[in-house]
Records
---
Amino acid sequence: MNHRPPFQKKPLQDHQINENILFPNIFLVGTDNEKIGKIATKEAIELAKSKGLDLVLISIKEVKTKDNQIQKVPIAKILDYGKFRYDIKKKKKEEKEKQSFTNNREIRVSFNINFQDILVKSKKAREFILDGDRVKIALRFRGREITRVDQGRKTLDIFYDQLKYIAKKSKEISQNGNFLVMHLERDRKKLPKFISAKQLKELLEYEKQKKEEEENV
């Protein structure tokens, strides 16, 4: 005995396009964002197809008429629907990645910090960055140290050198009062979003090898 699978509805499209647009008339926007105006939906579809494109319902705008009635105006645009969906998906992905940063961390260093302490503090910064956090490195000037900003920048550059294989500067180094500030975040081009302990160990070994190669140049 054959058992037919349960009927499943075909998933709806994200947008009304071409013959699926339910409105008999629409306000048409052209490929270069020019406002063509009110037109029959059927005519607009033919115009879009003549260009090898699609007619896509973008939004429904509510406008008030002269007699204070609310009228719904469907707005449609001629475009490449495949590219349109791709651009929306790409934008959502970028927004999601921006929101994936869970915390803003801060690490303070002194103007006279030695290299060993830089290694210790950069290790902590690495942990934050691998967790997806943004990290602000704040170098503090005391007294006449404020006149040696260039030296402070060099110190922050050395700090960044310990992290450059996994991080990027989200902002240029800037001075804020008695502080010189550097903002770092995970560089997704250098490091994937998810990384195993084994991969991290390999990465750290790679960092060490790269540093040794640079020192021998």
---
Amino acid sequence: MIYQHLSIYLSIYLSIYLSIYLSIYSGELASHIPTETMFELFDPQKNYSSAKLTYTWDLGNGEVIQGTEPVVRYHYSTSGNYTLRLKVADVTKYAPAITGVYSMDVQVLDAIKHIELRGPSDYEVSQNASLAVHVDGSPPMWVCCRFLPNCAPDPMGGCTLTMLYENTLRLNHTFTSTGVHCLDISVRNDISKLQSSFSIYVRRSSE
């Protein structure tokens, strides 16, 4: 099984006194994807090599996991912002103690799963057409779209790039020729990308 990863690092440097530096990677995760989070103790002088630690992981969604291993495996089923908290307890009572509570902010996003063109599949030539594209995924999203007459490839490869802060993109376009046209759409957010193409029939004006 493939996991997405987060790490919490605790670096310990011993000189005249003990200084503890906590470096946390705050990132973005995909919902419904197995996640592995690891607590790593960097102790180059091996002062805590025989320490016995216990770990209490509060995922921020009401779920709490306890154990003696510095690794926890879980997944978030709902997108949103969470605070992941880890409580480390030293049962061997080393001095100075490394017991503490550490936290990191996590943003969970929904991957882009589906692109849907809503509305009629045929339009009249030379009339302003309004189209709605619904995207199933977490915004913000970058949308690249282009209309291709006769569905012929565009040698320039250009597109209209739009930043989408909701799940529906509204497009206005005037078709200048009859026949079958294609609407090519590419959508991505910080964790996923999806492409799709839709066929649109353009008929002569009824006037």
---
Amino acid sequence: MVGDVNNLKRLFGSLSFPGNFKTNINQKIHISLSSFIEFQKMSTYTIKYFPSPGRAFVTRVMLNLAGATWKNEFPEWPQEKPNMPYERMPVLVEKRADGSEFVLTESNVIERYIAQKYGFLPGDLVEAATLEQYVSHMLDSRDAIRQIVFSTDNEENRRKATETTKFFIKKHEPVLAKSSSGFHHGDKVSYPDIFLLYIYNFSEMSSIAGTFNETDCPNIMKLIKILKENPLISSVSNDK
């Protein structure tokens, strides 16, 4: 939505109008869209998932940081599986101020929707694409770690998970090393920061715990510490 405001302002900035007409139009566009954004933020949310962090963790954290009104719902599984979109979770149910309801599934789609809505992705398309690129790269580590946590914890899978995570560290440590704030973007928490915490927590509950460490990735660990000390993150409820 922030991108919509900027795009419309750029459009009118390129046109010629007499007197103060263009200035007034720009102001009205900004006020109208800003009001619409605030109206959209009045929504309440239900996250349908299991009583564990998993694929709902990032969305829960973003909603908590944004100060949104949200709650968990733990459907009986697999009894309620046929009632879910695509028969899987998480599912986000948004109840809007006008009484309408929006249902969304697929964890990464839900995350991007909430990230865009509450400013965890920037309005600039290039900057947003860069941050989404970081998250997309993190998915390799998530999937490799999932194999040893939920499938088969054998030597081959541990090797793959370790190599994938070390490659991830090799690529992301320099990004954070260049950041004066310690975050992936600007001076506040953004989507890839939260996803990084998710990957870190996931790795620490697996047999490759310790792959993230102060020696190999001091800047990543610095960010992890910042996030873990944030009360709005540490207080996120994953099981009630």
---
Amino acid sequence: VLALIVIGEPFFLHTSSFVIVIFSGRYSSRLFVAYTTFYCLATILSMQIPFVGFQPVRTSEHMPAFGVFGILQIVAAMQYARPRITRQQFMTLFVGGLTAVGILAVVVYFALVWGGYVAPFSGRFYSLWDTGYAKIHIPIIASVSEHQPTTWVSFFFDLHITAAVFPVGLWYCVKNVNDERVFSEFLVILDQMKFFVAVILYAVSAVYFAGVMVRLMLTLTPVVCVLSGIAFSYTFEK
């Protein structure tokens, strides 16, 4: 699953939750450890697949995940320095450092793309946001069956009863909102002696991407299984 998410086009599935945490002021050492471990392991594991190779570090679709990894390192360094300097010094360091690193990152990215070291965004990426892009600009991509929009029949054929049950599990997660359940991807927490997986953002974004492209049903299936399990567990308890 880790490798699948990293090599898949919808990087939003595993970066958006961490971006929200960082910019909402909810950063913690647990977040740093969780994402750093997740990113390093997922990238290394995905690169072991012969078909994938060095794509996770040489394609633009995967740069946002690397960007979040870099932002976390900066925020961690800032948190370490915060109690050791004055507030004014901290704000100066934070704003100046973040601006300088941001500008440098953009310049380096475009330089790598221009030099051919990093591939630009592909037509499949643009097709995720504009479903008619491939038909107009790259017909060969639109002609591939796995790049077609997913029909309702496919959802029920692939997910079976879980297609109707997983929204209940999502509702239970929303009903019992806390930082972990809302933002942390694949974070397992202990609550009332039972383990739950926080997947609200993952579920919502996965449903969208799965509807855009048939092949992305693979990224939706894990969260559907998890939320269906939560729904059945809560229902049988009640």
